[in-house]
Amino acid sequence: MGIKTNSWIRLLLLAALTVHAGEILTVGNFSEGDLKNWKTKSFAGQTYYQFAKLNDRTVLKAESKASASGLFKEIEVNVAKTPYLHWCWQLIQPLPPLPETSKPGDDYAARIYLVKKGGLAFWRTRALNYVWSSSQAKESLWPNAFAGDNVMMLAVRNAKDKPGQWRCEKRDLRADWQRVFGKPAEKIDVIAIMTDSDNSKKSTAAYYGDIWFSED
Q1: What are the two backbone dihedrals, phi and then psi, of residue 179, each rounded to the nearest 5 degrees?
Q2: Which CATH number fits domain 25-214: 3.20.20.70, 1.10.260.40, 1.10.1040.10, 2.60.120.260?
Q3: Which of 95, 117, 134, 173 has its CA 20 to 30 A from that of 16?
Q4: Closest by alpha carbon to 181, among 118, 138, 131?
């Protein structure tokens, strides 16, 4: 009768976040099985994305077998107002150590893209990738092997973080953007996730939880 225990816990957590974080903007509501306004972009074959249950929570499972496709959502986020990016993820099947700074090694078991469009000046488009690295040290930065300095990779997790453990992240996107591109981000236009292994021809898999921005 009434609301189930898990639902009560969820409501309490949401209430605590609201009190602590001020304004919250949810961009990935995967715990509700919601992929509204998320679209697929394929680069090489199809990474398989589906909802799954993990310890009584709904998450998005991504499985790649020598494939590279992502899910993206076009949404303008005022980073000056809600600069903190939150998400949770878990590695299921890691990739072997890869030369990630080169084209043959440009694969990641899990990554979160943030894109700021350049408008008609397309060369001004910038993207920051928070990645689960197979070989780089945490907090390492390097340009994407295919796109150069306009797309930068930042290792949030690496091979020292064991698979099978749920990890939750909080990043100051405005500060990270300043570090990477020399000035703070005022807004972003697209957020995406991708699990890929097309260059290494390997298999990998990961879980993604909800993604949201907060004021503090």
Answers
A1: -65, -40
A2: 2.60.120.260
A3: 173
A4: 118
pTM score of the predicted model: 0.88
**Domain positions in the chain:** 25-214
C-alpha of 96 from chain center: 20
**Going along 66-186, which residue ranges are E strands?**
68-78, 84-93, 111-116, 126-132, 141-144, 148-157, 167-172
What pLDDT score does 9 carry?
46
CA proximity to 147, closest of 132, 133, 127, 131: 127
In angstroms, the Cα distances linking 60 to 73, 137, 187 are 15, 26, 26
Which neighbouring-strand residues pair with 144?
Answer: 148
